[in-house]
Amino acid sequence: MGATFSLGRLAGIRVGVHWSVLVIFVLIALGLAGGRLPDAHPDRPVWSYWLVGLITAVVFFLSLLAHELSHALVARRNGVGSESITLWLLGGVARLKSEAPSPVAELRIAGIGPLVSLLLGIVFALLTVLFGALYGSGLVLEALAWLAAINIMLAVFNALPAAPLDGGRLLRAAVWWRTGSRLRATEVATSAGRGLGWLLVAAGLYLVFMGAVIDGVWLLIIGWFMSAMATAEGGQAKVRELLGSVPVREAMTPDPTTVPAASTVTEFLSGAPWQYRHSAFPVTDPGGGPVGVISVNRAGEVPVAERDSTTIASAMVAVDDLPTAGPDDPLTGLLPALEASPVHQALVLADGRLVGIVTSSDVSRTITWLASAAGSRTPRTPLHPGRSSPASS
Ligand SMILES: [Zn+2]
């Protein structure tokens, strides 16, 4: 999922927002302030509709965050770290660092989200009753009732047994537990996801033709997203299965040619790339320690007039912004970071010493080779810039 922006960290987990959430935010605020609230109480000042509408949209957004954070925290308790949470159209994506270790862990991690949404729905429903008893009807009551309904809807929708929804994870946990095959389980859950996605698209089209354009377009978008994400998730599962326990060293270029950090872009462009035919090179300090990576494309972006005075150190991607791995780490563990990296390259380090470099194309090549050796078709790999699918929704 591309087009996300960061909101900072919560409990050590990076929180991001996908553009689709902004669409939701605007639609919710508009729907409340421009429709539901004035319809229910037409005699109030316009600013009060907008105030309550905007606050309600923010609380909805926090409910989504609570849902995702619960996934991430339960994952952590079950030994699966999370690096980030991304909120999007259907709720959110807690990006887990690895797969759940067992069906039971998967069940806990996936199940907690809808449970939290359901609890929030119940809490808002109780608040609605309480507020109604104390103050009678009003805009706040309307907002609380809406929050109760939307959280319960969120719980029910996310519990549908189709990837990438939480219910898809639950289905996957069940099939995994029954068959013992994680790949088979993912295939079942992602097929269900594609099926439900297309069903929603069909229902959306039907509604559009029947004249309910807004509701129809909503369903179309959600169905399309679901189907696309289920497909990407299926591809990733196949990749993980093929790569199995292949270590990073199998895919890396060992002892790569390095570029000194102090050399200039001109020196680099007239030298290394032509001699060695690689697209990117590790950059080292005078002591030989790795400090970053420079790609031919990146160096080429430096304006010609500035190339003589620009050092590689100021043009490179610094080592802190790059994924790194040990030579014996499993290659699958490196995939998410490699995908997210701005240059799609990772340095392979042993005791802080550079021993190799691995690129997205190295991984793709390894996958193609393994797929051919296994006699299967190369899966649609998710190794493209800004494309990924969730570890959990
Ligand atoms: Zn969830």
UniProtKB/TrEMBL annotation:
Domain (CBS): give its ranges: 252-309, 316-375
- Spell out the GO cellular component terms annotated for this protein, sorted alphabetically and separated by semicolons: plasma membrane
What molecular function terms (GO) are annotated for this protein? metal ion binding; metallopeptidase activity
Which positions bind Zn(2+)? 67, 71, 166
Q: Which residue ranges traverse the bilayer?
A: 12-35, 47-67, 115-137, 143-163, 198-226
Gene3D superfamilies reported in the protein's UniProt record: CBS-domain
Localization (cell):
Cell membrane
Task: State the membrane topology.
Answer: Multi-pass membrane protein
Q: Using the UniProt record, give the first listed, main subcellular location.
A: membrane
A Pfam family that this protein carries is CBS
Q: Which UniProt keywords apply?
A: CBS domain, Cell membrane, Hydrolase, Membrane, Metal-binding, Metalloprotease, Protease, Repeat, Transmembrane, Transmembrane helix, Zinc
Protein name stated in the entry: Zinc metalloprotease
Taxonomic source organism: Streptomyces dysideae
